[in-house]
Amino acid sequence: MSVLLIAVVSGLLYFLGTSRIGYGLSSAIGAPVTLGFVFGLMFGDPINGLILGASINLLYLGVVFTGGNVPSDGCLAACIAIPVAFQLGLDVDTAVTIAVPFGILGSFIDQIRRTTNLIWLHKADKCAAEGDQKGIYWCAMVYPTIVAFAIRFIPVFVINMFGASVVQTILTYLPQFIITGLSVAGGILPAIGFAVIIMSIGRKELLPYFFMGFFAVKYLNVGTMACAVFGICIAALMYFASNKKGETTV
To answer: Is the separation of the CB atoms in 30 and 72 below 8 Å?
Structure first.
């Protein structure tokens, strides 16, 4: 797999996943789990790609685009962290840790895009004053799309062209305890994604159960299926206990 092809595909996927062309379709394309599957097919390991994508996806479960603003960009995080992880053979936890700063970088890229849109907005006002309907269409659709493509494609292309070698150099010279720390942090970060979404639905009392399940899987080597069974049992117990108190919901 050539680095050039990886860089081109990554840039295109990032544009398609954030372009809002088709809206629902672009959101599906831009989901880290979808991107993980696509990159997995490219590298001949779709299962590991899904694992990487799903792990990164967990970070952004509770992210809300309030007013359309992007607080952190899971699509950019996946478009960079997953290819780098495949090229360097990184474990999932380290890949998740690498994804975080790029997700934050995505919010700055989106702000740049929004700022450039002001140029076409003022130009569209002039076209409207002149009755130029074609000019309004170009200012509303064509020009912003071209600029958005450049803003989104170029950074991802450049980072994927040279990022893997840079990351490899950094990891080579980093002390082992820092690499271990990154791996541990990457293992905990998905839990934070779950915690955020639990808090966003207003049920903070459910957090202890979540962390019990997370640490049971992570440190006690309890299988995911077994943990799911225990979770169902706990949910049933909570449901029956609440009914005894005269409550209708858990």
So the answer is: no
